[in-house]
Amino acid sequence: MRKLYYSLISLLFILFLSQELYALDVSGFVTTNTTWGPEQVNVTGDVTISASVTIVAGTRIVVADQTMITVTSVGSIQANGTSGSGIVFTAENPNTGWRGIFFDSGTGDDPSSSFEYTTFEYGNADGASGGAVSISYHSDISFVNCLFENNQSDKYGGAINSAYSQLILENCTFKSNQAGVFDGGGGIRIMNSDGHELRIENCEFYNNNANTGGAIHAESAAGLTVSGSVFANNESDNGSAVTISQSSSNDISFISNTIVNNLANNTSGAAINVSSYTERLSFVNNIVFGNKNGSGEAMAINFGSQPYNPVFQNCLIEGGQSSVSGLPGAVTWTDIIDEAPEFLSASSGVGTAFDGNSADWQLSDQSPCINAGLEDVSGLGLPAYDLAGNPRIQQGRIDMGALESSFVPTSVVNRFDNVDFNLWYRRDAGQIVVQTEDHEYFTGALYNITGALVDDKRPASFQNQMIFSAAGLNRGIYVVTLFRTNGKPLKVAKVVVD
Q1: 134 and 166 in contact (C-beta within 8 Å)?
Q2: What are the pLDDT digits (tens) for 274-322?
Q3: Which among 189, 269, 289, 466 could bridge 157 via Cys, Cβ 3.0 to 4.6 Å?
């Protein structure tokens, strides 16, 4: 009896071990709905998915050399990572790389696929396009809170190549991806003339490289909207950040982006290169600064052929109209400034030789871009929060660029003689700051909402700027009282510490 018992235990162990091995090592055809993870999945040979594959949060997928995962028109992937438990697609050998995920030609009503909190690294489309992901004629594929890093292709799209498909990217980061020597889209290449939704929202592009379109190359990109995104230290010969080609009769919108320190190696290059006629182009609330061409000149945008009445509103563009070549006579050009944007910590140079990711592209307290965006942003479709999680609209007005300042006016007080004081709560530094540009000297005190004194600057010397420490303060409403040199109150103002 004991011998039979141990025989049954041994058999169960062998069966369990076999199931674990099958769960860990995958290749061949997937024709029934299945789940990968949370243990590591080893893709040992090419996989073709014609069913639904669900990937559990925390799963690490290690793919063998130049091995591809293909999703057919009846297949899908649901990769549902979380902020604390992401999913990773990586290569068994980073020097050789894996061949990426290929969404094969669909019918237009294919099952949707989605990726959240997923990292794609060391994809290498040797002799092909789309280092990490390639999409052909597929509808409804989205990437949210994903990271694409160190991917490359010999042709188009160092990280993603999307052809005639609907593509949505939200809160994604593209770092150090590269497309082939003669092709474009270091981060993304989009080919789309079928009018699918193309939306790139709150994304970051750092140190990507291609021949054209260092971060993005869009061809025939109908309805492309790029909003709330940062393009820093990307590099190409033409269109160091973005190249748009074959885009006639299409709507192209750039809204609230920060496009900085990108390098176009050609002497005629620019940060954004529009190489063909564009019927409708809107350029609103953007910062374009520090971008250089091969001659070291500041070049923001180059139009290969004149667009039809483009709209430029509430932007900081270094060099003004002189850095936008190919403009037509009919152009809307309103509230454009040409000043230094005053970032908290910019990268130390242009192009991929300098790290755009380690910089802090938020606006400092001295920035002319604070509350200088378009006054009425209704209809722009901006998200409620920026890349850093800050509310996009503060004090009823949006900043220029992708990131709201952490040094935001929370109250404005008027003296009886109409001298204005600005109050800021600077979250990152833990400070409440009072400032006037009128060189009026004042002193002040900080109280909590119950009236208890928190910080008293009296009888300190009178200044035209005063800083109260907010370190250790509880969240809530505080009151600042300003005093004249004769000791009489000027005005009382509230400030919210959050």
Answers
A1: no
A2: 877 666 789 999 999 999 999 999 999 998 877 778 899 999 999 999 9
A3: 189
